[in-house]
Amino acid sequence: MRYHIAILGDHNPNHSTHQALDDSIKQVVKLFEEDLRFDWVSTDTFEAKSAFNHQYAGLWIAPGSPYKNTHNVLDAIRYAREHNIPVFGNCGGFQHMLLEFARNVCGIANADHEEINPDASDLLISKLNCSLVEQEEELTLVNTNSILFDTIRKEKLTGRYYCNYGLNCQYQATLKTQGLKITALSDDGQVRAFEVEQHPFFLGTLFQPALTSTYEEPNPLIYAFVRKVIQNSRH
Length: 235
Prior knowledge:
The chain is an alpha/beta fold.
């Protein structure tokens, strides 16, 4: 059986983060016996209902925002969340997963992204105090009842970034009351990873796991995502 995973993003083969993501797929695929296929799908052509009903069993929201079509990205995330399809998002993926959750679960209808709409009334995603482009942080895993902790099995991890925007901390409490599970924090208490309760795999990281993946040690979060796609499809 072949398992198809959509990588939703506007692929740029010259961008280092997209090169790293492509490399990480090769590194992880060799760990599985199953027939796996990863397809980059442009954000301006993706149609969620058709794609998930006829082809894809998992959704990876790639870095590289602002996307060509933000509406399609948010629609894909919503469909996957509501239909228990595994979702993995990094950097821009992390940001847009939070936007979708804020708008459709928390009722923050005007939740927006400062990079896209800097004059919005509810800037859920705002510019970081310090750029994280090509930076690393040591992060603390703060929830032992999480996919992240079950995967890493450590209290600390090193996150590598290519990012200038993150979650506005003013909205953190509201998101948590509606079922968002904060799983990793920076030393200054900023959210760097989250999950959604009662979903098989809805995991966002501001850091990019592909940037720390190697042929000798494929990133365990990417492995966990692919494994969940296979398990979820079988059931």
